[in-house]
Amino acid sequence: MQVLTIDIGTGTQDIYLFRSGLNLENGFKLVMPSPTMQIRGQILDATHRGDDLLLTGVTMGGGPCHWAAEAHVKAGHMIYATPEAARTFNDDLDWVNQEMGIEILSEDEAANLMNVRRIELRDFDFKTIVEAFNLFGVRLDPQVVAVGVFDHGAAPPDVSDRQFRFDYLEARIQAENRLTAFAFLSEDIPPILTRMQAVAKSGSVLNCPLVVMDNAAASVLGASLDTRVSAQSRVMIVNVGNFHTLAFRLGPTGIEGIFEHHTGLIDQPRLETMLRALADGSLTCGEIFDGHGHGALIRHPEKLNLDHGDFGVVVTGPRRSMMLCSELRPYFAVPYGDMMLTGCFGLLVSVADLVDELAEPIRSALTSAGGDIAPWDILD
What we know:
With 380 residues, the protein is of the alpha/beta class. The chain has 14 helices and 16 strands.
Protein backbone atom coordinates (compact mmCIF):
# COMPACT_ATOMS: atom_id res chain seq x y z
CA MET A 1 0.00 0.00 0.00
CA GLN A 2 1.29 3.44 -0.96
CA VAL A 3 0.43 6.97 0.10
CA LEU A 4 2.11 9.75 -1.87
CA THR A 5 2.56 13.02 0.02
CA ILE A 6 3.72 16.33 -1.50
CA ASP A 7 4.38 19.42 0.62
CA ILE A 8 4.55 22.37 -1.78
CA GLY A 9 6.34 25.41 -0.44
CA THR A 10 7.86 28.54 -1.92
CA GLY A 11 11.40 27.19 -2.27
CA THR A 12 10.94 23.44 -2.50
CA GLN A 13 8.37 20.73 -2.96
CA ASP A 14 9.05 17.86 -0.59
CA ILE A 15 7.81 14.47 -1.78
CA TYR A 16 7.55 11.38 0.39
CA LEU A 17 6.23 7.94 -0.52
CA PHE A 18 4.78 5.99 2.40
CA ARG A 19 4.71 2.22 1.97
CA SER A 20 2.94 0.07 4.53
CA GLY A 21 5.06 -2.49 6.36
CA LEU A 22 8.20 -0.36 6.28
CA ASN A 23 9.50 1.92 8.98
CA LEU A 24 9.13 5.55 7.93
CA GLU A 25 12.88 6.11 7.59
CA ASN A 26 12.88 3.71 4.61
CA GLY A 27 10.33 5.74 2.67
CA PHE A 28 11.53 7.13 -0.66
CA LYS A 29 11.77 10.90 -0.81
CA LEU A 30 12.56 13.81 -3.12
CA VAL A 31 13.28 17.44 -2.23
CA MET A 32 12.97 19.39 -5.47
CA PRO A 33 12.39 22.97 -6.67
CA SER A 34 8.88 24.23 -5.94
CA PRO A 35 6.47 24.71 -8.86
CA THR A 36 6.67 28.50 -8.53
CA MET A 37 10.47 28.31 -8.74
CA GLN A 38 10.21 26.16 -11.85
CA ILE A 39 7.82 28.63 -13.51
CA ARG A 40 10.11 31.47 -12.46
CA GLY A 41 12.96 29.79 -14.34
CA GLN A 42 10.84 29.39 -17.48
CA ILE A 43 9.76 33.03 -17.40
CA LEU A 44 13.32 34.25 -16.86
CA ASP A 45 14.43 32.19 -19.85
CA ALA A 46 11.67 33.75 -21.95
CA THR A 47 12.76 37.21 -20.83
CA HIS A 48 16.33 36.44 -21.85
CA ARG A 49 15.15 35.26 -25.26
CA GLY A 50 12.69 38.12 -25.73
CA ASP A 51 9.67 35.82 -26.07
CA ASP A 52 6.09 36.93 -25.46
CA LEU A 53 4.26 34.60 -23.08
CA LEU A 54 0.88 32.95 -22.72
CA LEU A 55 0.15 31.58 -19.24
CA THR A 56 -2.48 28.84 -19.09
CA GLY A 57 -3.47 26.19 -16.55
CA VAL A 58 -4.80 26.85 -13.07
CA THR A 59 -4.19 29.06 -10.07
CA MET A 60 -0.95 28.22 -8.25
CA GLY A 61 1.40 29.67 -5.65
CA GLY A 62 2.91 33.04 -6.51
CA GLY A 63 5.98 34.72 -5.08
CA PRO A 64 8.95 33.90 -7.35
CA CYS A 65 6.85 33.37 -10.50
CA HIS A 66 4.95 36.59 -9.76
CA TRP A 67 8.16 38.61 -9.49
CA ALA A 68 9.51 37.06 -12.68
CA ALA A 69 6.28 37.95 -14.52
CA GLU A 70 6.51 41.56 -13.35
CA ALA A 71 10.12 41.74 -14.54
CA HIS A 72 9.17 40.24 -17.92
CA VAL A 73 6.58 42.96 -18.56
CA LYS A 74 8.91 45.70 -17.35
CA ALA A 75 11.49 44.43 -19.84
CA GLY A 76 9.03 45.29 -22.61
CA HIS A 77 7.61 41.84 -23.36
CA MET A 78 3.95 40.79 -23.45
CA ILE A 79 2.27 38.36 -21.09
CA TYR A 80 -1.17 36.99 -21.89
CA ALA A 81 -2.99 34.80 -19.38
CA THR A 82 -6.24 32.88 -19.06
CA PRO A 83 -8.39 33.91 -16.08
CA GLU A 84 -7.55 30.90 -13.90
CA ALA A 85 -3.83 31.27 -14.51
CA ALA A 86 -3.96 35.04 -13.91
CA ARG A 87 -5.49 34.51 -10.46
CA THR A 88 -2.09 33.18 -9.43
CA PHE A 89 -1.09 36.84 -9.12
CA ASN A 90 -4.31 38.28 -7.71
CA ASP A 91 -7.95 37.25 -7.47
CA ASP A 92 -8.85 40.68 -8.90
CA LEU A 93 -8.27 40.29 -12.64
CA ASP A 94 -8.62 44.02 -13.24
CA TRP A 95 -5.67 44.52 -10.89
CA VAL A 96 -3.64 41.89 -12.76
CA ASN A 97 -4.32 43.73 -16.02
CA GLN A 98 -3.91 47.30 -14.83
CA GLU A 99 -1.13 46.94 -12.26
CA MET A 100 0.93 44.13 -13.80
CA GLY A 101 0.19 44.81 -17.46
CA ILE A 102 -0.94 41.24 -18.16
CA GLU A 103 -3.62 40.88 -20.85
CA ILE A 104 -6.42 38.52 -19.83
CA LEU A 105 -7.73 36.23 -22.58
CA SER A 106 -10.59 33.77 -22.65
CA GLU A 107 -9.76 30.08 -23.09
CA ASP A 108 -10.89 30.29 -26.74
CA GLU A 109 -8.79 33.39 -27.40
CA ALA A 110 -5.77 31.73 -25.78
CA ALA A 111 -6.19 28.60 -27.91
CA ASN A 112 -5.98 30.67 -31.09
CA LEU A 113 -3.07 32.90 -30.04
CA MET A 114 0.01 32.55 -32.23
CA ASN A 115 3.70 33.41 -31.91
CA VAL A 116 3.92 33.15 -28.12
CA ARG A 117 5.68 30.82 -25.73
CA ARG A 118 3.15 28.84 -23.68
CA ILE A 119 3.67 28.02 -20.00
CA GLU A 120 1.17 25.92 -18.07
CA LEU A 121 0.70 26.88 -14.41
CA ARG A 122 -0.10 24.31 -11.72
CA ASP A 123 1.10 23.34 -8.28
CA PHE A 124 0.47 19.60 -8.56
CA ASP A 125 2.06 17.75 -11.48
CA PHE A 126 1.41 14.05 -10.90
CA LYS A 127 2.73 12.95 -14.28
CA THR A 128 6.16 14.47 -13.65
CA ILE A 129 6.38 12.91 -10.19
CA VAL A 130 5.49 9.49 -11.64
CA GLU A 131 8.19 9.91 -14.29
CA ALA A 132 10.78 10.88 -11.68
CA PHE A 133 10.08 7.78 -9.59
CA ASN A 134 10.05 5.61 -12.72
CA LEU A 135 13.60 6.71 -13.52
CA PHE A 136 14.65 5.06 -10.25
CA GLY A 137 12.67 1.88 -10.90
CA VAL A 138 9.83 2.74 -8.51
CA ARG A 139 6.28 2.26 -9.79
CA LEU A 140 3.80 4.65 -8.22
CA ASP A 141 0.37 3.19 -7.50
CA PRO A 142 -0.89 5.23 -4.55
CA GLN A 143 -4.08 4.40 -2.66
CA VAL A 144 -4.23 8.10 -1.65
CA VAL A 145 -2.34 11.25 -2.66
CA ALA A 146 -2.00 14.11 -0.15
CA VAL A 147 -0.87 17.61 -1.14
CA GLY A 148 -0.06 20.55 1.12
CA VAL A 149 -0.26 24.16 -0.10
CA PHE A 150 -0.71 27.60 1.48
CA ASP A 151 -4.02 29.21 0.49
CA HIS A 152 -5.00 32.80 1.31
CA GLY A 153 -8.48 32.15 -0.03
CA ALA A 154 -10.38 34.34 -2.47
CA ALA A 155 -11.18 37.48 -0.48
CA PRO A 156 -13.93 39.80 -1.74
CA PRO A 157 -12.59 43.05 -3.26
CA ASP A 158 -13.39 45.07 -0.14
CA VAL A 159 -11.85 42.61 2.36
CA SER A 160 -8.16 42.35 3.28
CA ASP A 161 -6.70 39.03 2.18
CA ARG A 162 -4.83 38.93 5.50
CA GLN A 163 -8.10 39.32 7.41
CA PHE A 164 -9.84 36.82 5.13
CA ARG A 165 -7.14 34.21 5.67
CA PHE A 166 -7.18 34.56 9.44
CA ASP A 167 -10.98 34.57 9.62
CA TYR A 168 -10.84 31.23 7.83
CA LEU A 169 -8.24 29.84 10.27
CA GLU A 170 -10.32 30.96 13.23
CA ALA A 171 -13.50 29.48 11.79
CA ARG A 172 -11.86 26.10 11.27
CA ILE A 173 -10.53 26.07 14.84
CA GLN A 174 -13.94 27.04 16.22
CA ALA A 175 -15.58 24.26 14.19
CA GLU A 176 -13.03 21.49 14.81
CA ASN A 177 -10.32 22.18 17.36
CA ARG A 178 -7.58 20.02 15.86
CA LEU A 179 -4.81 20.44 13.31
CA THR A 180 -6.36 17.96 10.87
CA ALA A 181 -9.31 20.36 10.56
CA PHE A 182 -7.17 22.09 7.92
CA ALA A 183 -7.22 19.01 5.65
CA PHE A 184 -9.98 18.07 3.21
CA LEU A 185 -10.84 15.35 0.79
CA SER A 186 -10.82 17.03 -2.61
CA GLU A 187 -14.60 16.97 -2.96
CA ASP A 188 -14.98 18.73 0.41
CA ILE A 189 -12.62 21.68 -0.16
CA PRO A 190 -14.44 24.95 0.65
CA PRO A 191 -15.11 27.05 -2.48
CA ILE A 192 -13.21 30.03 -0.99
CA LEU A 193 -9.94 28.05 -1.07
CA THR A 194 -9.18 28.60 -4.73
CA ARG A 195 -5.59 27.36 -4.69
CA MET A 196 -6.67 24.10 -3.06
CA GLN A 197 -9.50 23.85 -5.59
CA ALA A 198 -6.90 24.24 -8.35
CA VAL A 199 -4.85 21.39 -6.86
CA ALA A 200 -7.99 19.26 -6.89
CA LYS A 201 -8.54 20.13 -10.55
CA SER A 202 -4.96 19.12 -11.38
CA GLY A 203 -5.57 15.91 -9.41
CA SER A 204 -8.49 14.89 -11.59
CA VAL A 205 -6.07 12.54 -13.40
CA LEU A 206 -5.83 10.39 -10.26
CA ASN A 207 -7.74 7.16 -9.82
CA CYS A 208 -7.56 7.42 -6.03
CA PRO A 209 -8.70 9.87 -3.33
CA LEU A 210 -6.89 13.21 -3.01
CA VAL A 211 -6.39 14.97 0.33
CA VAL A 212 -5.41 18.66 0.31
CA MET A 213 -4.20 20.46 3.44
CA ASP A 214 -2.89 23.83 4.56
CA ASN A 215 0.84 23.16 4.58
CA ALA A 216 1.64 25.40 7.57
CA ALA A 217 -0.72 23.33 9.73
CA ALA A 218 0.72 20.15 8.20
CA SER A 219 4.24 21.18 9.24
CA VAL A 220 3.17 21.92 12.80
CA LEU A 221 1.33 18.60 12.94
CA GLY A 222 4.39 16.80 11.60
CA ALA A 223 6.66 18.49 14.15
CA SER A 224 4.41 17.23 16.93
CA LEU A 225 5.39 13.66 15.95
CA ASP A 226 8.99 14.18 17.07
CA THR A 227 9.35 11.90 20.12
CA ARG A 228 10.61 14.71 22.37
CA VAL A 229 7.73 16.93 21.31
CA SER A 230 5.01 14.29 21.62
CA ALA A 231 6.13 13.66 25.20
CA GLN A 232 5.00 17.17 26.20
CA SER A 233 1.44 17.64 27.49
CA ARG A 234 1.44 21.27 26.35
CA VAL A 235 3.76 22.78 23.76
CA MET A 236 4.37 25.77 21.48
CA ILE A 237 5.27 24.90 17.87
CA VAL A 238 6.27 27.55 15.33
CA ASN A 239 6.70 26.98 11.61
CA VAL A 240 9.04 29.65 10.21
CA GLY A 241 8.27 29.50 6.50
CA ASN A 242 9.78 31.43 3.63
CA PHE A 243 6.74 33.72 3.41
CA HIS A 244 4.68 33.10 6.53
CA THR A 245 5.39 32.30 10.17
CA LEU A 246 2.62 30.45 12.00
CA ALA A 247 2.70 29.41 15.66
CA PHE A 248 0.32 27.05 17.45
CA ARG A 249 -0.04 26.65 21.21
CA LEU A 250 -1.22 23.08 21.76
CA GLY A 251 -2.54 21.29 24.83
CA PRO A 252 -4.92 18.55 26.04
CA THR A 253 -7.95 20.52 24.82
CA GLY A 254 -6.49 20.95 21.34
CA ILE A 255 -5.42 24.28 19.86
CA GLU A 256 -5.03 26.80 22.69
CA GLY A 257 -3.83 29.72 20.59
CA ILE A 258 -2.39 30.74 17.23
CA PHE A 259 -0.82 33.63 15.36
CA GLU A 260 0.30 34.12 11.77
CA HIS A 261 2.65 36.77 10.43
CA HIS A 262 4.81 37.47 7.38
CA THR A 263 8.32 36.12 7.91
CA GLY A 264 9.96 38.95 5.99
CA LEU A 265 8.52 41.52 8.40
CA ILE A 266 9.87 40.01 11.63
CA ASP A 267 13.24 39.21 13.18
CA GLN A 268 14.27 37.05 16.13
CA PRO A 269 13.48 39.61 18.88
CA ARG A 270 10.08 40.32 17.38
CA LEU A 271 9.30 36.61 17.00
CA GLU A 272 10.38 35.93 20.59
CA THR A 273 8.09 38.72 21.83
CA MET A 274 5.10 37.31 19.92
CA LEU A 275 5.77 33.78 21.14
CA ARG A 276 5.98 34.91 24.77
CA ALA A 277 2.74 36.87 24.37
CA LEU A 278 1.02 33.86 22.79
CA ALA A 279 2.24 31.74 25.71
CA ASP A 280 0.95 34.07 28.42
CA GLY A 281 -2.29 34.89 26.60
CA SER A 282 -1.64 38.60 26.12
CA LEU A 283 -1.22 38.57 22.32
CA THR A 284 -4.02 40.34 20.45
CA CYS A 285 -5.25 40.00 16.89
CA GLY A 286 -4.97 43.76 16.39
CA GLU A 287 -1.33 43.76 17.41
CA ILE A 288 -0.45 41.25 14.70
CA PHE A 289 -2.72 42.74 12.03
CA ASP A 290 -1.51 46.28 12.63
CA GLY A 291 2.04 45.00 12.08
CA HIS A 292 0.92 43.72 8.64
CA GLY A 293 0.52 40.14 9.81
CA HIS A 294 -2.65 38.05 9.61
CA GLY A 295 -3.88 37.84 13.18
CA ALA A 296 -3.87 36.06 16.53
CA LEU A 297 -6.34 34.02 18.58
CA ILE A 298 -6.23 32.96 22.25
CA ARG A 299 -8.67 30.18 23.13
CA HIS A 300 -7.32 28.88 26.44
CA PRO A 301 -6.78 31.20 29.42
CA GLU A 302 -4.16 29.12 31.23
CA LYS A 303 -0.64 30.39 30.57
CA LEU A 304 1.99 28.16 29.01
CA ASN A 305 5.26 28.37 30.94
CA LEU A 306 8.04 28.50 28.33
CA ASP A 307 10.71 28.27 31.03
CA HIS A 308 9.56 24.85 32.24
CA GLY A 309 10.99 21.58 30.92
CA ASP A 310 13.76 20.78 28.47
CA PHE A 311 12.83 23.40 25.91
CA GLY A 312 10.57 26.39 25.54
CA VAL A 313 9.53 26.41 21.87
CA VAL A 314 9.56 23.82 19.09
CA VAL A 315 10.72 25.17 15.72
CA THR A 316 10.42 23.86 12.17
CA GLY A 317 10.37 25.36 8.68
CA PRO A 318 12.89 26.45 6.01
CA ARG A 319 13.79 29.67 7.86
CA ARG A 320 14.07 28.05 11.27
CA SER A 321 17.59 29.48 11.60
CA MET A 322 15.90 32.71 12.68
CA MET A 323 15.57 31.06 16.09
CA LEU A 324 19.19 29.93 16.43
CA CYS A 325 20.66 30.95 19.81
CA SER A 326 17.29 32.29 20.95
CA GLU A 327 16.85 32.82 24.67
CA LEU A 328 13.67 30.75 24.39
CA ARG A 329 15.82 27.60 24.14
CA PRO A 330 14.20 26.34 20.93
CA TYR A 331 14.11 22.68 20.03
CA PHE A 332 14.42 22.02 16.29
CA ALA A 333 12.04 19.16 15.53
CA VAL A 334 13.24 16.26 13.38
CA PRO A 335 10.36 13.77 13.15
CA TYR A 336 11.67 10.39 12.03
CA GLY A 337 15.07 11.99 11.48
CA ASP A 338 14.13 14.39 8.66
CA MET A 339 13.15 18.04 9.16
CA MET A 340 12.47 18.54 5.44
CA LEU A 341 9.65 15.96 5.55
CA THR A 342 7.85 17.47 8.53
CA GLY A 343 4.95 18.62 6.37
CA CYS A 344 4.73 15.25 4.62
CA PHE A 345 4.41 13.43 7.95
CA GLY A 346 1.64 15.86 8.93
CA LEU A 347 -0.11 15.06 5.66
CA LEU A 348 0.12 11.37 6.51
CA VAL A 349 -1.66 11.95 9.82
CA SER A 350 -4.44 13.77 7.97
CA VAL A 351 -4.85 10.88 5.53
CA ALA A 352 -5.26 8.53 8.49
CA ASP A 353 -7.91 10.88 9.87
CA LEU A 354 -9.88 11.24 6.63
CA VAL A 355 -9.54 7.83 4.93
CA ASP A 356 -10.79 5.16 7.30
CA GLU A 357 -9.36 2.13 5.50
CA LEU A 358 -5.82 3.54 5.72
CA ALA A 359 -5.98 4.71 9.33
CA GLU A 360 -4.61 1.54 10.91
CA PRO A 361 -1.50 0.97 8.73
CA ILE A 362 -0.54 4.66 8.85
CA ARG A 363 -1.02 5.02 12.60
CA SER A 364 0.83 1.78 13.17
CA ALA A 365 3.80 3.07 11.18
CA LEU A 366 3.74 6.44 12.95
CA THR A 367 3.88 4.80 16.38
CA SER A 368 6.01 1.72 15.60
CA ALA A 369 9.74 1.46 16.15
CA GLY A 370 10.07 -0.15 12.72
CA GLY A 371 8.44 -2.11 9.95
CA ASP A 372 8.48 -5.86 9.43
CA ILE A 373 9.23 -5.91 5.68
CA ALA A 374 12.65 -5.48 4.12
CA PRO A 375 12.79 -2.51 1.74
CA TRP A 376 14.17 -4.60 -1.11
CA ASP A 377 11.04 -6.78 -1.04
CA ILE A 378 8.69 -4.03 -2.29
CA LEU A 379 10.62 -2.19 -4.98
CA ASP A 380 8.10 -3.02 -7.73
